[in-house]
């Protein structure tokens, strides 16, 4: 047998060994995807960090859809965003301090915390050299690789005491923007022959400004940086159950080091059903803009969306990216905030026609999903639907849409890791899988005929 053939042979056998009768799930009361029968998440923990509200329960236990609300340490995120806008200041650092510590910092604490972030933004020259030397073709993978490497340069990497965890958390929040900006610039240089710029972070700039500066020098406005700051705030945390944060909690519960756990979270966030959806939305919108001749013709839009849902168009997954959510029903509060911002920005940049096309797509996608899936769950646009459009208006390249999500979510991941490792009564996370195949008698190799 040829070596190449063994791959196909093993894969073919695997095809038969991964089949389960659909009725086995209900027979054994399996919580597929850790979901209850009504689609809500199985309760697996307690947290003091984020609160994601997407529905209420009627007295008969049925779900009542509501407008979504998101709280960080008990504060409504919409209030945090609107106050930052009203006071015309950058607030991602303040939100990071709040999420990591549990308290809104006072002016002195915030200043010292921000100074500490600036101190930690530069990379060890070996990390920087490895980003340049090893190159790479995906910023999320380069980010994960660089985070794993930080273990080597940490003098106390395995210590899970509270002080050490907080030090590591602040260092990670500080270093993510630098790694992402350098990784992207290196990739651009390598893949597109563009000049390579390594700009050092500047001490008096906010994280959002510093990131844009490291990415593209002085080619950004204060308004651009304020938009990015708001995007970072709304993506910083989303409870313990979202796929990447849960990954961080699961790996942390085994007692592994911070860098291994965070690298696992990055891998999860990259998935197109989770944070990677922002890149998919961007590609999907470009595809639809090219394929649909008249952006105002609802029949034409509907027909194309139906093709997407029937796996005949776009990536043939049958998904309309940026629509649907595991918790939210009537609305994702982050999508609502971003929709408003996208409208203002589109007007300013003369791209209202595209914005109106997005609004139309959002409305018609929901209608088409109801029609095709026959689901009675109320669905809405999620945070990823409008974030990519705003990044594009800010001239941020698509390759770093998901990495920017990671730059924000590193805060939530660290807060949850620290909670998982420090709460009294913690347990290693270990759910169960029921074996449903047949038990076999061992067959000596000379008697097998495959
Ligand atoms: C930051 C974030 O992670 S936000 C989410 C980003 N992800 C996306 O935008 C990807 C597109 N959306 C989806 O895949 C889903 O809506 C998820 C993964 C976000 C949530 O999944 P679930 O909670 O399991 O979905 P839900 O129970 O509401 O789905 C019911 C049915 O509608 C389908 N559905 C839900 N959303 C979509 C969608 N956007 N396109 C097509 N079908 C959809 C489901 O596949 C399911 O169909 P099935 O019963 O035939 O399998
Ligand atoms: O909560 C989820 O399942 C996904 C999500 O929106 C996030 O992580 O921001």
TrEMBL record:
Catalytic activity from the UniProt record: oxaloacetate + acetyl-CoA + H2O = citrate + CoA + H(+)
Cross-referenced Gene3D superfamilies: Citrate Synthase, domain 1, Cytochrome P450-Terp, domain 2
Pathway assigned to this chain's UniProt record: Carbohydrate metabolism; tricarboxylic acid cycle; isocitrate from oxaloacetate: step 1/2
Keyword Transcription regulation: no
Record's keyword terms, sorted: Transferase
Any one Gene Ontology cellular component term annotated for this protein: cytosol
Active-site residues, record numbering mapped to chain: 325, 384
Domain of life according to the entry: Bacteria
SUPFAM superfamilies to which the protein is assigned, alphabetical: Citrate synthase (SSF48256)
Entry annotated with the keyword Transferase: yes
InterPro entries: Citrate_synth-like_lrg_a-sub (IPR016142), Citrate_synth-like_sm_a-sub (IPR016143), Citrate_synthase (IPR002020), Citrate_synthase_bac-typ (IPR024176), Citrate_synthase_sf (IPR036969)
GO MF, one annotated term: citrate synthase activity
One record GO biological process: tricarboxylic acid cycle
Family label: Belongs to the citrate synthase family.
UniProt-recorded name of the protein: Citrate synthase
Species of origin: Pseudoprevotella muciniphila
